[in-house]
Amino acid sequence: MEYLDFELPIKELEEQLTKCVAIGHESDIDVTETCQQIEKKLAIAKKDIYKNLTAWQRVQLSRHPNRPYTLDYIKALCGDSFLELHGDRNVQDDKAMIGGLGKIGDQSYMFIGQQKGYNTKTRQYRNFGMANPEGYRKALRLMKSAEKFGIPVVTLIDTPGAYPGLEAEERGQGEAIARNILEMTRLKVPIITVIIGEGASGGALGIGVGDSVLMLENSWYSVISPENCSSILWRSWEHKEKAADALKLTATDAMKIKVIDAIIKEPLGGAHTDREGTFIAVRDAIVANYDKLKNLSQVDLVSSRMDKYSKMGEFKG
C-alpha cells in the first residue's frame, strides 16, 4: 500500500495495529483492548482526513498509483464481452486512447477512454494517457459507428492532457479535438461521460461532451493542471496548492457551476481502497443515466445536449 503525504498519520496507526495483532499471535498476552483502541483512533483519523480534503489533496488522490484506470473499469463492467477496436484508418493505433464494444447486462455500449500505464514500461507504451490526434480520430470513428448502429456511448476520462508534442501539432491535434467536440454535440445516440481520474484541458474535452457528465468524488476537471497554472502565474510549481484552490477543479466545485450533472461517491480513502465498490457505483450510475436517456427521440436528445452546453458560462450581472 502506497501512502500520500497527508495519509502518514493513517500509515502510522495501521503499522501500530499490525504490530499489536502480531504481538497477540506470538505471545499469550491479551492485546484485544489495545487493538480496539488503535482501531478506534484509526477510524477517527480516516474520517477527519478524508472528509476535509483540500483541492490539491484530491488531485493527489486522482493520481494515486493504485487507482483503477479505464481498462480496469471496462473489464469490471463488461467482463469477457468487451471487444477492443483499433486504429483511426489514417495514421496508426493510438495506445493512449482505447475503445470498443462491451455489455453491461443485456445492453451494449461503445466504451472509449484514455488509458494510463501501471509501470515505466506500460506508461511509455500508453504515452502516460496523453492521446495524439489519431487517438481522438479513433474515438470519433468509434462514436460514429455507435451512432450508425444505435449503440449508446460511454466515455471514461483520465488524462493529464492531450499530447503536446510537435509531431502531434503537425498532424492536427487542435483540429482533431475541435472536430470531436463538434461531432459529439450532434451525435444521435446517448453519451454518458465519467471522469474517473484527471480531466485536464482539451485532452479531456475531446471525449467529454455528454448528455450526462459524471465525476468520481476524488477526480478533477479543469482547463489546466495546478502545476502548469502555478508555473504560468508564479513561474514555479511551488504554488500548485494555491492554484488548485483557485481553479475550482473538484467535483463539488464543478457541480456548483453546473459543468457536471452528478458526483459518484467513492469509498473512504479513495477508489483504490475498494475497487469493487467503486466499479459497482460507476456501473449503477451508467445504467441509471442510460435509463433516463434511452427513451428520448434523436431530435430531443441532440436538442437537450445543445441547450445544456449553450447555457454553460452564462453570467448575469
How would you characterize this protein structure?
49% of the residues lie in helices and 15% in strands. A hairpin with a 2-residue loop joins strand 2 and strand 3 (107-114). The protein has helices at residues 8-26, 32-50, 55-62, 70-78, 120-125, 133-148, 166-170, 173-185, 201-205, 226-234, 240-247, 251-256, 275-293, 298-311, and strands spanning 83-84, 97-104, 107-114, 153-159, 191-200, 212-216, 220-222, 262-264. Helix 1 (8-26) runs antiparallel to helix 2 (32-50) and helix 3 packs across helix 11. The mean pLDDT is 94. Strands 1, 2, 3, 4, 5, 6, 7 and 8 form an 8-stranded mixed sheet that branches. It contains 14 helices and 8 strands. With 317 residues, the chain is an alpha/beta fold.
- Please tally the helical runs, counting DSSP H or I stretches of 4 or more residues: 14
Low-confidence stretches: none
Distance between the first and last residues' Cα? 50 Å
Dominant shape: globular
Instruction: Tell me the total number of β-strands.
Output: 8
Q: Tell me the β content.
A: 5-15%
Radius of gyration: 21 Å
The major β-sheet equals: 8 strands, mixed
> Residue share in helices?
40-55%
List the secondary-structure elements in sequence, H or E: HHHHEEEHHEHHEHEEHHHEHH
Query: How does the helix and strand content classify structurally?
Result: alpha/beta
Relevant terms:
317 residues, single chain, eight-stranded mixed beta sheet, globular, alpha/beta
Secondary structure layout:
Blueprint (H helix, E strand, L loop, with lengths): L7 H19 L5 H19 L4 H8 L7 H9 L4 E2 L12 E8 L2 E8 L5 H6 L7 H16 L4 E7 L6 H5 L2 H13 L5 E10 H5 L6 E5 L3 E3 L3 H9 L5 H8 L3 H6 L5 E3 L10 H19 L4 H14 L6
Helix pairs in contact: 1-2, 3-11, 6-8, 10-11
